[in-house]
Amino acid sequence: MFTSEQKIFALIFLIAFIAIISFQYYIDKKRNKELFKGAYWVLLSVIGLLIFYVLLNKLLH
To answer: 35 Cβ partners below 8 Å, 6+ apart?
Structure first.
C-alpha cells in the first residue's frame, strides 16, 4: 500500500506540521489573548469526538 519511505515522509511531515502550528498558536495567543479564550474547550471537544468515534467504530465492527 505505502512504501516505507512514504510512511517516514508522512510521519516527519505530520510532526513538523504540528510543531509549526503549535508554535504559531502560542505566538498569536500572546498577541491576542481575547481571541483565544475558549480554545482549550474546542481542543478537548475535538479529542473527545475522535475518541468517541474510534470507540463506536470498534464496538460496531
So the answer is: 28
Please give the single-letter amino acid code of residue 33: K
Give me the residue label for grid cell 512514504. Answer: 6
Q: Is 57 helix (H, G, I), strand (E, B) or coil?
A: helix
With cut-offs at 50, 70 and 90, classify the pLDDT of residue 33: confident
H or E, element range at 16: helix 4-31
Within a 10 A sphere around the Cβ of 25, how many other Cβ atoms?
A: 13
Cα 11 from Cα 5, distance rounded (Å)? 10
Hey, is 2 helix, strand or coil? Answer: coil
What is the pTM for the complete model shown? 0.60
